[in-house]
Amino acid sequence: MNSNITRETVCSYYTAAETYGLKSVKTRCFDWLLCHLMTHPSVELYREIDTKLMYRLICSADLLVLQKEMDIYTTLKEWLFLCLNPSWKGPVKEILVNANRWLSKHMERVDSISFLESEEGLIYQRVFKKLRFQHIICDVGDTATLERDRLIPLEWLAPIYKRQWLALLQEQEHMEIGPRIISEELEDCCMRCGTMIRRDGKYSWKWSDVRFSFPITVTFTNRHIIFRESRQQYDGCWLKHVRYIVFKITLVCFDSNGRVTFSQTTGHKIVTFEHNEEQIVMKLDGVVLSFPLCIFFNFLF
Question: For the whole prediction, is pTM greater than 0.90?
């Protein structure tokens, strides 16, 4: 079983392993799902994942996320649509359009509550609550989508808005400089994001969380991954205090069948930045890389 985990077998193997106490099989199946859920979306796979298993996957800091937290929300919306529309047939690229159309029509019949507050949606609340909304509401478009969908109760967001606003004020007044230790908080709060590089070259990325005191530009070039600190300017002055950021980088290559052919991680590390400082955080000299190459990040800032 351990040597034959595929999209067709992973969920049935996981269920069997849980039933009969096969810890190694259960762990390998779970790790396979963390690696493939978002990198290789599949109608058939989504249909086989129950709420208990999806809850565990969404909770994990090791979930490999392409793009950002909002894309986890989108994945859950597609999964929800397939759970509630078992007769739907179509390719994976058409799930989101159909899910949005179905949700919009469904919510036209509901006046004042969100979908997850309805009788149909209650059993899915636990899963959606594990989304890290603090990494979604920093983007205006993503926040507008949450409100337009009416899938989640907007009351969930109120305390997060307050917490993020106070955190931003504290950072601007030099009261908060980031985590100084690697703690359990990383598992529950870290920002999960990632990208795919199609061919070798030089690439740079920023994420929308940069607006919330995450002043890091990531560059991949010459087999190195580089972080550069580039803080925002407030009232005509650059903020010059030292910042601490906890991070983990994971590199993964897949073959044409979705099998992992290469994987490497930095583990959790703390990096300290002063204004406009640049640091090499991962060196891949001597490592044979194939492309496309997926790069996944965890950040706590």
Answer: yes
